[in-house]
Structure formats: structure tokens, C-alpha cells
Design brief:
2 domains, alpha+beta, 26% strand, disordered N terminus, Aminopeptidase, 12 strands, 312 residues
Length: 312
């Protein structure tokens, strides 16, 4: 239990405040933009170079693309995040979002290992690393020397995507959830989180997690279907959205309804809802979750890359 209580949920204000302090402190250790090579905290003058880097794989890079579109370029976020650029020959060759989480952008194995050492020596702490597997595992290969034992390392998570109409008929009952349904949808979200991550999202205070779910509902990013008793049958979120890609997150089927062949039709309905916002719909899943992979394949998702996640 002590291990779980030591963890801090990334949506808590204390984490955002801490990240902001670390970001400010970390800048003093960054290379100056005037230097020809090294690590640089990117700013607005790097917008075009970063955009070119992101566009090499818009599906894998939807996290940073969503941030850039929302803020109209590089700017600090409410999480106190920044983008660290890696330069070679005066050109931006890769980058990494560094806030509460680390999210690599076009990072090679060699760059990732160097970045992990750089971040470790800065003394900064993070809740997770996620993104393309080669980059994540390279960063972790050196960052782990400066970090506590990870909560979990998931080295192989197929990145799936679908364009065009799903291969199965969508479930008719799936719809966007309403704010008056929070008392029902929050427990479903928490159950999914605990199954997937291994600890309760209520660590540190349930009200903060409730607000996070409420934000998804207000943004019409929370989808669910309910049974006659008002309980959630299935739910999912449009977690990250850019002009080109929607990344689905939080897929969960009520255990009482599992094994009935319902998942594919619900996923198809989620795809159609997501495609009203962007043409490509993606998600990533643990390689050992064979049941989920089979459902995604039935719907028409195809593997387009491999992600990895380190939970700290």
C-alpha cells in the first residue's frame, strides 16, 4: 500500500505546480540556442522546425500536435511542460515533450539514451514515458539510473489506426455522456484506470479525478452506452485530438457484459464519432491483450507502429 500512496496522479494540482518548478529549474541546465548542437528548450522561433518533425508521423505524434494546435505554437502548458529539442549540425533532429510525462518526438535510440542521461542529471521527475517504443526504451535505458524502480514497463504496445468506414455495424446506443451522468461515468472510468494501470485514480483525492472526467464530458470527448438500470455497459474517450488524428483512450466494457461479442460494434461507433473530428482514428494497446487486439482487428484497425510505456 505504501507504494501506491507514494504515487501522485498526474492530474493533481500539486503535480502541475511541481512540474512548473522543475521546468524553471531545468532551463538553467539546457544548452543555449546559440550553440550549434545539444539540447535546447524550444520556443516560438522553432515552431516551423518542430512542425516538420511532427509531420513525419502525425499518428504517433498526435499528443504534441494537439498541444501545438490548441496553443497555436510552442508555449508553456498548464502542466508546466516544455519541448526539449535535440540539434545536430544546427538542425532540429528530434524532440521530447517534458512535463509531468515524457513524450518523445522522432527520437532515435542514440538521441534517446543521451536525453535520458540529460534529464536524469537535471534532477527532474516524471510520472511516465510513453510514445514510440524505440525512443521510450532508449530514454529509459539511461534515465533509470536516476529514477526509482518503475511501477511498470510495457515495452510492446501495438499502435493501431483506421481510416474509412469500420468493417462492422456500429452499436446504436453509444452516445456522448452528459454532466448529469457523472455519478455513473466516474466509477466506470476509475474501474478502467485501475484495471489498466494497477492503482486507483483516487490516490490523492477523488474530487480532482472527478473534475478531470467532467472536463472530458464537457468537451464531448466521453462516449458511453447504458443499460436499463442506468449502469455503464461500455465507455471510451476521444483522448487526444488533432486535425488529422483522434487517439481513443479509456476503452472499457462492464465485466457483466464481457464475452457477449459486443466490443466490436461499440468500437465501430467510437470510430465513427471520432471521424467527425479527424480522418485517422488510432489507439495503442498492450500486446498481451489478445482479446482487445482481436476486436480492433475485426473493426478494421491495422498496426502502424509500436509504442511503449514506462510508469514511474
Amino acid at each position: 500500500m505504501a507504494r501506491l500512496l507514494a504515487r501522485v496522479a498526474p492530474w493533481l494540482p500539486s503535480v502541475r505546480s511541481h512540474a512548473e518548478q522543475l521546468t524553471t529549474a531545468g532551463r538553467s541546465g539546457m544548452a543555449s540556442p546559440a550553440e550549434p548542437d545539444g539540447f535546447v528548450t524550444l520556443d516560438k522561433e522553432h515552431n516551423e522546425a518542430l512542425a516538420r518533425l511532427v509531420e513525419r508521423d502525425p499518428t504517433a505524434n498526435v499528443f504534441i500536435t494537439s498541444h501545438l494546435e490548441a496553443s497555436r505554437g510552442l508555449s508553456p502548458s498548464y502542466e508546466g511542460g516544455e519541448v526539449i529539442g535535440i540539434f545536430a549540425g544546427g538542425e532540429l533532429v528530434s524532440a521530447c515533450w517534458a512535463g509531468v510525462n515524457l513524450v518523445p518526438i522522432g527520437v532515435s535510440a542514440a538521441d534517446g539514451a543521451a536525453l535520458g542521461t540529460h534529464l536524469g542529471q537535471s534532477g527532474r521527475k516524471f510520472s511516465s514515458i510513453f510514445g514510440p517504443a524505440e525512443a521510450v526504451l532508449a530514454i529509459w535505458s539511461t534515465l533509470q539510473q536516476f529514477s526509482p524502480e518503475p511501477f511498470d514497463v510495457r515495452p510492446t504496445q501495438p499502435l493501431l489506426a483506421i481510416t474509412g468506414h469500420p468493417l462492422v455495424e456500429p452499436a446504436a446506443g453509444l452516445r456522448f455522456t452528459r454532466e448529469d451522468e457523472l455519478d455513473v461515468i466516474v466509477p466506470a472510468c476509475a474501474a478502467m484506470f485501475e484495471e489498466e494501470v494497477g492503482y486507483s485514480p483516487f490516490v490523492g483525492g477523488g474530487e480532482h479525478y472527478r473534475r478531470r472526467v467532467a472536463s472530458l464530458v464537457r468537451r464531448q470527448a466521453s462516449l458511453a452506452d447504458f443499460d436499463d438500470d442506468g449502469q455503464v455497459i461500455f465507455k471510451a474517450e476521444l483522448g487526444t485530438v488533432s486535425r488529422t488524428t483522434v487517439q481513443i483512450q479509456g476503452v472499457w466494457m462492464n465485466p457483466a457484459y464481457r464475452g457477449q461479442g459486443l466490443s466490436a460494434s461499440y468500437l465501430a461507433a467510437v470510430v465513427l464519432a471520432a471521424q467527425r473530428r479527424a480522418p485517422v482514428v488510432s489507439l495503442y494497446v498492450n500486446s498481451f491483450n489478445t482479446r482487445a487486439l482481436a476486436a480492433y482487428n475485426t473493426v478494421g484497425f491495422r498496426e502502424v507502429g509500436t509504442f511503449a510505456t514506462v510508469l514511474l
